[in-house]
């Protein structure tokens, strides 16, 4: 099955190809016209306008986006006017002259949409009733195809008829279509990320909720104060884990929620569960996908330490590593055969290891393939899961700020998270 991340990569490549094609034709056009400025200056201007048009079109095919993009497209094409319509032929934006001629173009636009093919018409066939010279000599209407469907059209009005101008209109329409497709894929990517977070929540809740409530209920009579404390931690944990907004959070907030989880598990396992934090304060505000650390901690407790006679030590480390934060979750539990790692890459689908395949996919989708999880393990030698998280990534921003500390104290380089 092709993943959305793969589609995004493929269409990003298509976007680059479309951009280079338009750029190459523009350079040819500049040379043919013997413009006064140098070709290098023209190319720089072209790249600047393409960049601006790209960011505008990533918002989707709306009137506002079209109004922002058409002036840049007209300057790129050096033509009389550029217009963009929707899939029904309604003009979203028209930049330049001859806008009163659209009435003569309705049939041409309709044919382009219905046939999904470019249409070229010159002034003589438009039925223009203007007395005297008309700025509209040639019109090219090119469908904007997104996901195999016509989403609208690009109308290019020229003062002269030229095969090169027609080719430029076609390549520009392809460039516009690619930007619109990238916007669609971005929405699909966000929807996938939200679905994956929901899947993680569904896996975390059944076993942990049952065990947590069972532990709390056992303390109600013997230690009611402790039971109330755990119930409050449980409430805060579920509030954070089941929040409905945001795909990202800060390392500080994720650690705060992990502390709540471990407080409850400490009450269950007692001295069998020992926890050590080694957190560099300068990486606390690093942004990472929501719920990527807590499932790894849960796996360490459930599959590493709970199965080891006498329990063991869980170590969470976060270090400054230049442009990245180096984060690891390590236990000295039972470990596993490294050959089993291939077996658990899809374990999030069976529940064998809570969300590890899900987390790996999310890290790769958000930050790139080079940010996949690294797992070190061996039988009776524990397990260590390592994440590299870039300090800055496009469109990766926290949406919620629930605490940025543990136990109301700044975290030092080495601090026990829970009293043994």
Automatic annotation (TrEMBL):
GO cellular component, one term: membrane
Spans traversing the lipid bilayer: 12-29
Example GO molecular function: phosphorelay sensor kinase activity
Keywords of the record: Kinase, Membrane, Transferase, Transmembrane, Transmembrane helix
Record domain Histidine kinase/HSP90-like ATPase: where: 284-393
Protein name per the record: Two-component system, LytT family, sensor kinase
